[in-house]
Specification:
Layout lengths: L1 E5 L8 H13 L3 E7 L3 H4 L7 E5 L8 H14 L5 E4 L5 H6 L6 E6 L3 H4 L11 H18 L1 E4 L12 E2 L18 E5 L8 H13 L4 E5 L7 H9 L4 E4 L3 H8 L4 E4 L5 H4 L4 H8 L4 E3 L3 H10 L2 E3 L6 H16 L1 H18 L2 H27 L1
Parallel strand pairs: 1-2, 1-4, 2-3, 4-5, 5-6, 6-7, 8-9, 8-11, 9-10, 11-12, 12-13
Helix pairs in contact: 1-15, 7-13, 11-14, 13-14
Length: 378
């Protein structure tokens, strides 16, 4: 099976696209061409063996037209012999749904609730959030009619009732890791104000004054909060690693006192299962998170961390500081919570299993497509 994977908006080393889906396909013996922005030489070192890349410009903020144009010029060539084309951005639905490339199946992988995500997208002016949500609703309707759809979370099934769930899980460590020195608490993922940047900075300042643990942040920063983050780094309040290749980010998490998930109460996070929680649990690190319904449910089921009672502001900082105090001073308590989350992740949310299901689903789609084309040929 020959698969072409396309994104203009995600990073070229996106964990779900490259290190989960493409790797699973390649390990199963299929060929994969990735049309995506070039992540640079360091992230490319971690590419799965056999991955072919076709680099294009990245669509960033309001600068998107050139990326679409570059992709449009590439499509006919790279898709000529494809069995499946998987794309990862809703803005590509018109380009890939209506363009005649061949007999391949078009598959949209919906990572997020994009209509809810509009309010958490800093480059979209507030006056345009309504029209953008409306446009995304139209694109969803087109995709339902013309594409096969994969979804990252079960909560999206109301929007895409005929979709296939491919959960955004990760590979789980085979061995549990206890807390290690020097003590640190970590945050991994996109850095934004709605994801608790201000609270993490204040928390870091308090912990530094007492001699630790250190607050370590790993991930790309939104433009509107970068200056605030860099100022905090200069003052020594937090350590920012910047974007890290996915295989290396687990080395940052592993052995930490806790993983932070201080998400605010915004629509995009309210009913989603934060991927970062599974990433923390996959290496045995308990989570400290805000009381989103999904977070509360996950942590109560796993016993894998601490859920705070507030979403933002000084209350979050005070409660998180107390939780970190307890986990730092009682390593047996930290290990018990971390082991509980790790056990649940291993039994229910391991990409080692989910990746096989993903590959089997794509093989089924490709087989149906070949059968259909054979009947038409007769």
């Amino acid at each position: 099976m020959h698969v072409v994977v396309v994104t203009v908006a995600h990073r070229g080393d996106d964990a779900r696209i490259v290190h989960r889906q493409a790797r699973a396909l390649l390990e199963a013996g299929h060929s994969v061409v990735l049309v995506a922005p070039d992540p640079g030489p360091e992230p490319r070192r971690f590419d799965p063996v056999g991955l072919e890349r076709e680099p294009i410009r990245r669509a960033v903020g309001r600068r998107r037209i050139h990326a679409w144009y570059e992709l449009s010029r590439l499509l006919s060539r790279v898709c000529r012999s494809a069995d499946l084309v998987i794309f990862h951005d809703p803005e590509l639905i018109p380009l890939l749904s209506f363009r005649r490339l061949g007999g391949e199946i078009r598959v949209w992988d919906a990572h997020a609730d994009y209509r809810a995500l509009v309010s958490d997208t800093s480059w979209i002016p507030p006056m345009l959030t309504g029209p953008v949500r409306g446009a995304l609703g139209i694109l969803n309707s087109i995709a339902r009619r013309r594409c096969k759809i994969l979804i990252a979370e079960a909560s999206y099934v109301t929007s895409f009732p005929q979709s296939v769930l491919v959960p955004n899980t990760t590979r789980v460590d085979s061995v549990f890791t206890s807390v290690t020195q020097p003590l640190r608490v970590v945050y991994v993922g996109r850095v934004s104000f709605d994801r608790g940047l201000r609270e993490m900075i204040e928390l870091g300042e308090r912990l530094v004054q007492r001699g630790g643990p250190e607050v370590v942040i790993a991930g790309p920063s939104d433009d509107d909060c970068r200056a605030v983050l860099l100022d905090a780094v200069a003052r020594g309040a937090v350590r920012w690693c910047g974007p890290i290749p996915n295989p290396e980010v687990f080395d940052v998490i592993r052995g930490s006192v806790a993983g932070l998930a201080l998400l605010h109460d915004v629509a995009n996070y309210r009913f989603s299962n934060p991927t970062k929680v599974w990433e923390y649990w996959s290496v045995g690190v308990p989570v400290i998170g805000t009381p989103l319904p999904s977070m509360t449910k996950m942590v109560s089921e796993a016993g894998g961390g601490v859920v705070l009672t507030v979403f933002s502001g000084p209350g979050v900082v005070e409660e998180a500081e107390r939780a970190i105090d307890e986990l730092s001073s009682r390593p047996e308590r930290r290990d018990a919570l971390g082991r509980s989350g790790w056990s649940l992740a291993g039994s229910t949310s391991d990409w080692a299993r989910d990746g096989l299901d993903f590959v089997r689903e794509l093989e089924r789609l490709a087989s149906e497509s070949r059968t259909s084309r054979s009947r038409i040929g007769k």
